[in-house]
Amino acid sequence: MKTIADIAKIAGVAKSTVSRFLNGGSVSEETKRKIEQVINETGYTPNAFAQSLKAKQTNMIGTIVPRLDSYATSRTLMGIDERLRELNYHMLISNAGQDLHREIESIYTLAKQKAAGIILLATQVTDAHLQAFRTIDIPVLLVGQQHEEVYSLIHDDETAGYAIGKYIAQRGHKKIAFLGVGEYDVAVGVKRKKGVAQALREHAEEVEARFFETTFSMTDAAEKAEQLFDEFSPSALICATDNIAFGAMKAAYRKKQYVPKDISITGFGGYEVTAMMHPSLTTVHIHFKEAGQMAADHITKLIKGEDIPKLAYSRFELVLRESVDIRTDHLL
Amino acid sequence: MKTIADIAKIAGVAKSTVSRFLNGGSVSEETKRKIEQVINETGYTPNAFAQSLKAKQTNMIGTIVPRLDSYATSRTLMGIDERLRELNYHMLISNAGQDLHREIESIYTLAKQKAAGIILLATQVTDAHLQAFRTIDIPVLLVGQQHEEVYSLIHDDETAGYAIGKYIAQRGHKKIAFLGVGEYDVAVGVKRKKGVAQALREHAEEVEARFFETTFSMTDAAEKAEQLFDEFSPSALICATDNIAFGAMKAAYRKKQYVPKDISITGFGGYEVTAMMHPSLTTVHIHFKEAGQMAADHITKLIKGEDIPKLAYSRFELVLRESVDIRTDHLL
DNA sequence: ATGTTTTTGGGAACCGGTTCCAAATAATCT
DNA sequence: AGATTATTTGGAACCGGTTCCCAAAAACAT
Question: N or C terminus of chain B: which is more exposed, having fewer CB within 10 Å?
C-alpha cells in the first residue's frame, strides 16, 4: 500500500504539498497536475486512521439498536442512513441483542472508536446509561424513549394510544381488552397502555376495560390472547404492537371467533404486512423512517453545536381498515 | 482525554511499559499495580485509531446489505453479529439501499476503513464488483450469490425450488403457476425458478406450468397475482418469496378464491409471520440466521488464512402448513 | 531595477499508540 | 563470589497522515 510519502517522492514534492493538494490548500497548477497523475497511477487512498488520529473525530454516527429483526428498527435505520448519507456522515450499527449490558458496552465502544455522535434506539434508560452518557464526551440522542438529561425523540405513544382507544370506544364496543407488554419498555409497555387507558376511562360508564400483558413474541401473544378470550371475551382487543395483533388474530381463528364480526382487533406500528393480511389490520401507523431522518438531522445538529429541542415527537396516524367492526348492540 | 504518555508520566514509568502492560508483555507485579491504579483513577482508554494505525488492521468485519427492511437481511445480520461477537470481532453494517453503485462504493469505503474482511449480501455480482474485490486487499465473502472468483455462501435456492415444485406436483395439482422476480437477482429470480421448473418438467405429462414475473413488493405481487388468476386460473401458485405469497393471498381473497380450497399458495423464506397468518403458509424455511453464523465463521477463517470451501451451502427445509391442499380431481 | 506582497514548497513536529533494541536489574548456576 | 542467564525497563523509531512555520519563488507595485 502506498503512503503519502511515496506519492510525494514519486511526484518529486514534499509530503506536506501532497497533503495540501488533497485537502484543497494552495498548490500551483503544475504541481497539482503532477500529483494528480501519480495518485491516479498508483491508486493511492489516504489511510483513514492516520487522518482520524490527528482529527480526533470521525464522520461516523453510531446507532445502537436493541434488535435487528424488527420492522420498527429496520425502518428507523433506513431513515437514519438515508439522511446521514445526504449529510455526509456514515452510519455504524451496533446490535445489542436485547441485552442492556451489551447496550452500555456499545456506548463505550463507540466512544472509543471516536464516533461523532450516538443514536440510541432505546427500550429503557437506566442509571448505567446515564453514567455512560456523562462519561463519554459525545452527543447522544435517544429515540423511542425519553429522559430529561438527554436529547430525545419519541413516537408520542401516549397520544397514539389515546387515539386508538378513543376510536374503539366510539365504535360502540363495551368490553374492551388491551394486550400489552411489561413496563420494562416505557414506550410500549407504559405509554401506549396509559394512552389507551385514558381514552377508555373517558367512557367508563359504558365500557368495561381489562388490561393484559404478554411479550413481544407472536407465539406468546397468541397464547395469551386465547386465555384472554376465555376469561373475558371482549368485543374488541387493542394490541400494543402489530406482532401481538398477528398473534391475537391467530388466536381468534383458533377460537373460531371471526374478525371483525365477533371480535375487533387493532395493532400498533403500521408494518407493511398489516395491509396484506386478511382481514387487513386497523393500526396506528408510526412514521419510523421519518423519525429516523429526524434523528439524523438532530444528531448532526448536536454535533455542530446547533440548537435543537430537548424533546421532539415523530408523527403517527390512525389507519382504519377491516379488522374493526362497529357495535350497535346497545341500540338494540 | 488522557494519553498513554500521561499515564506513563503519572505512574512514573515509560510509555512502552504501559503499552506492554496493556498488551500483556512482561511487567513486574509492582509496576503492574501502579499502572493499573493510575488507569483506574483516570479512566483511560487507548485511542483506537492510534492502535489501528500501527496494526494496519482492525477487528471490524464490514457487512454490506442491499436493504435493511427485509426479514432475510435481518436474520442473516443477527447470525453474523452473534457469531462475530463470540469470535471477538465487530460488525459494521453498510446499507446500499438497493443501489449497486452504492454497493461498490461501500466496498472501497470499507477497505479504506481497514475492515478485516467484507461480507456482501449480494443480489448480483457485476464486473465492477469483481474489479473492486481485486483492487482491495481484503478477504471477501459473498452470501446469497456465487461467483467462481470469490468465496461464496449460498442458500441452495435451486434445490429448494425443486423441493417445493416436486411437493406441489405430487399433491396432484395440474395447473401450476410460478410467480417470481426478474433475473437481475440470480438467487431468487433465476435459481428458485430453475429448481421449480425442473421439478415440474418431471411431471410434464400431467401438469401445465406457467411462469410469471413481478417485483419484491407485496403490492405489485398482489396485482400481478390477480391478473394471473384471470388469465390462467391455476390450482396452485408457487411464489418466489413469502412477501410475494402475502400479496398473492390478498389477491386470492379479493377474487374470492379460497386458500387452499380453490387455490394452494406457497412462499419461500420462512418468515415468522407465515405461521401466524390464516391460513398458515406452506413455505421453504431458509436458515438465514444459521447462514449468517456460517458466514461469520468463514470470513474469520479467511482472515486468519485458514482453508474454507470456495462454495458452501446453507440449509433449508420444507415447512408444510395449511395453504396447500391436495387435489384429487384426477381420481374422479 | 528595487521593494513589497502573495503563492508555493519543504522541513519538522505532532497525533497516540506499538515495537525493537539495548541497558539495568534480578535470578540462577558453577 | 563471580559468571551466566532471564526478566524488567526505558529510549527511540515508526505507523501515515496534518499543520505550523519559514524560506524561496513568483507576481505585483513603485
Answer: C
Looking at the fold, whether A300 and A161 belong to one and the same domain comes out as no
Would residue B51 count as lying in a domain? no
Residues A151 and A298 in one domain: yes
**Cβ atoms B125, B150 nearer than 8 A:** yes
CB-based contact B314:B155 (threshold 8 Å): yes
Q: What amino acid occupies position A257?
A: Q
Interhelix angle B29-42/B15-22, nearest 10 degrees:
90
Estimate in Å the CA A9 to C1' D13 gap, whole number.
Answer: 21
> What is d(CA B81, CA B85) in angstroms, rounded to the nearest whole number?
6
pLDDT digits 0-9 by tens, A94-151:
999 889 999 998 998 888 888 899 999 999 999 999 999 998 889 999 999 999 999 9
Q: What is the pLDDT of residue B329?
A: 60
Is A51 part of a structural domain of the chain? no
Q: State the Cα–Cα distance between residues A60 and A44, nearest whole angstrom.
A: 22
Please check whether residues B73 and B207 belong to one and the same domain: no
Distance A17 CA to D22 C1' (A): 15
Mean pLDDT (10-residue bins), chain B, 332 residues: 90 93 87 92 90 86 92 94 91 90 91 91 94 91 96 96 97 96 93 98 95 95 96 96 96 93 96 89 97 97 93 96 83 48
Which 3 state secondary structure label does DSSP give B63? strand
Domain limits for position A239: 157-287+318-331
Structural domain tally of chain B? 3
Helix extents (H) in chain B = 4-11, 15-22, 29-42, 48-55, 71-86, 100-112, 127-135, 157-170, 193-201, 218-232, 242-254, 273-276, 288-303
Q: Residue A277 is part of a domain; what is its CATH number?
A: 3.40.50.2300
If asked whether residues B123 and B167 sit together in one domain, one would say: no
Domain membership of residue A53 (yes or no) is no
Please check whether residue B93 lies inside any domain of the structure: yes
Q: What is the length of chain B?
A: 332
Comparing alpha-carbon positions, the chain A residue that sits nearest to B246 is A276
Q: Which of residues 161-190 of A touch B (CB under 8 A)?
A: none
Which residues, at least 6 apart from B221, have a Cβ–Cβ distance to it below 8 Å? B179, B214, B215, B239, B243, B244, B245, B246, B247, B248, B251
Residue nearest to nucleotide C26 (CA to C1'): B28
Q: Are residues B325 and B177 in the same domain?
A: yes
Beta-carbon separation of A276 and B250 below 8 A: yes
Q: Which of B49, B71, B276 sits opposite A53 (nearest CB)?
A: B49
CB contact under 8 A, A43 and B78: no
In a shared domain, residues A164 and A132: no
**Tens digits of residue pLDDT in A60-97:** 899 999 999 888 999 999 999 999 999 988 888 999 98
Mean pLDDT in residue range A238-245: 96
